[in-house]
TrEMBL record:
The keyword tRNA processing does not apply. Coiled coil: none annotated. Residues 26-256 form the ABC transporter domain. It is found in: Cell membrane. It comes from Streptomyces poriferorum. Keywords: Antibiotic resistance, ATP-binding, Nucleotide-binding, Transport. This is ABC transporter ATP-binding protein. Residues 1-18 have a biased composition (Basic and acidic residues). GO terms for molecular function: ATP binding. The keyword Transport applies. Residues 1-21 are annotated as: Disordered. It is a peripheral membrane protein.
Amino acid sequence: MTDRTDSEKADRAVEPDVPRATPPAVRVEGLWKRFGDHTAVAGIDLVLPAGKFIGLVGPNGAGKTTTLSMVTGLLRPDLGRIEIGGRDVWRDPVEVKSRIGVLPEGLRLFERLSGRELLAYTGRLRGLPGEDVDSRANQLLDVLDLAGAQHKLVIDYSTGMRKKIGLAAALLHNPEVLFLDEPFEGVDPVSAQTIRGVLERYTGSGATVVFSSHVMELVESLCDWVAVMAAGTIRAQGTLAEVRGDASSLQNAFLELVGAGGRDDSAALDWLGGAR
Ligand SMILES: Nc1ncnc2c1ncn2[C@@H]1O[C@H](COP(=O)(O)OP(=O)(O)OP(=O)(O)O)[C@@H](O)[C@H]1O
């Protein structure tokens, strides 16, 4: 990717003899977001290492989407600082956005374009040369099993196809960090396996994936690094082994961390089922 190489060259030209530590993919300090009198994100700190497959997990309403929206420059924080690859997201938004890909929750696509047209349009918006867009789009459509549907309008795509074309659009400019909000939700096992293969290949080349999910088995099998969020706070972050600790599974560690471990609902819904 020329962007990365050019900026690395520029860095070296300024300080030729100073070795630089690789900055984390994402650094978040003291991040807050309130909606009215509800605090969605309560002063979180995060350091997400580069080159990892990272899961952001938490129960419904934990603040994952709000956090990812602020980290990717889509929602302005009330307070706090966010860096991606050492660059401030809110001070240097154009540069940062050229280096990231985003598959947001409730993905809105241009419904009246075909999948192929959507990629061509995205490529032009990203400033890629036409022939690069064509060859990358061909490969992505092929690998994501969308080649047969490339001329179909996006409005006629299934949920899984929409996730896959959204993923293709997010990857087209070869970002350094890819953010995915619930990428596997509503996706059948075959499409999930395809998406998974593409993401594994991508992180295998040194790029970073950050994705949110509720599905612990998936996170456990995919991620090497995990952050657990609940009620707007980070309850744990670290390698999968560190976060799992002594628990038998990530699921059990998660339930303990979010305070749902010992919950007993046996008395509730005692009217449900049985004789009428
Ligand atoms: N635009 C908004 N206006 C008001 N409240 C909001 C808004 N966006 C989020 N919230 C609230 O902030 C809290 C965190 O929501 P968020 O969507 O970030 O959680 P989440 O962890 O992504 O949840 P889920 O897993 O259910 O998608 C919730 O209580 C939600 O109702």
